[in-house]
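A reminder from the course coordinator: this example appears on the midterm review sheet, so study it carefully.

Given structure:
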């Protein structure tokens, strides 16, 4: 579905994504792993065209519809959750008679009330849930989720990981950024480990890892824990 070849991004004099290549098959849940500042969000933003790449190629199947949940969601503070989704539905030109029902369903899916609470009074977890609902709007084929469980409470995180599993069963392709490696092991098929913009390793659930957990592999690739 998506192939990235020798992706490169330079900020100032610093190369933050360096000749990164990977491909994602239809129906896979694919993990982008790496420490803070490794280049995961930058890679996602290049795929989405939100930031210009300084080299490489991104090849995507024709007509792939993308949904995106950003790492730091921002919505107009004076709207409530339904109004935000309604605004995004308008942008997607989803007819009003269809969007009302879809919005109610999506709010319920992510565990938000259909109430009048304004975004400015949302907690971090509520914002994250709304961002997920926004990403699901219009039934995209490819979901790009940048730390969708950051800030969620314990049950919220479990629900969102279960939801990602259900979306996979429904045939969606998903790119997932997360630091919670147990969640990645549970829901992802494959992934790459990035360090300082470079590909440090790959992980495939189907492969034999000789009893090593993803955390073991991660620490090995990253080169040990920081002091
Ligand atoms: N707009 C920008 N201008 C300059 N440097 C940037 C910009 N955005 C990101 N960077 C730098 O690019 C590098 C990669 O950042 P990125 O946000 O992609 O990391 P990340 O892997 O998503 O980290 P995290 O796990 O903390 O979200 C960092 O060194 C960061 O400081
Ligand atoms: Mg990030």
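Designed residues:
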């Amino acid at each position: 579905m998506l192939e990235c070849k020798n992706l490169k991004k330079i900020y100032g004099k610093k190369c933050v994504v360096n000749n990164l290549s990977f491909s994602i098959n239809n129906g896979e849940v694919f993990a982008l792993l790496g420490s803070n500042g490794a280049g995961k969000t930058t890679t996602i933003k290049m795929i989405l065209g939100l930031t210009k790449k300084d080299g490489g190629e991104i090849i995507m199947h024709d007509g792939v519809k993308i949904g995106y949940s950003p790492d730091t969601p921002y919505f107009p503070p004076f709207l409530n959750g339904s109004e935000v989704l309604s605004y995004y539905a308008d942008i997607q030109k989803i007819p009003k008679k269809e969007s009302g029902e879809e919005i109610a369903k999506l709010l319920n899916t992510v565990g938000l009330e259909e109430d009048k609470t304004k975004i400015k009074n949302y907690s971090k977890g509520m914002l994250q849930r709304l961002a997920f609902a926004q990403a699901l709007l219009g039934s995209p084929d490819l979901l790009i989720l940048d730390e969708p469980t950051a800030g969620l409470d314990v049950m919220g995180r479990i629900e969102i990981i279960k939801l990602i599993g259900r979306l996979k069963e429904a045939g969606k392709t998903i790119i997932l950024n997360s630091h919670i490696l147990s969640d990645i092991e549970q829901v992802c098929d494959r992934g790459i480990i990035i360090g300082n913009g470079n590909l440090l390793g790959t992980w495939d659930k189907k492969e034999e890892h000789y009893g090593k957990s993803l955390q073991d592999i991660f620490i090995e690739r990253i080169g040990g824990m920081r002091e």
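DSSP finds seven helices and nine strands in the chain. The two ends are 40 Å apart (CA to CA).
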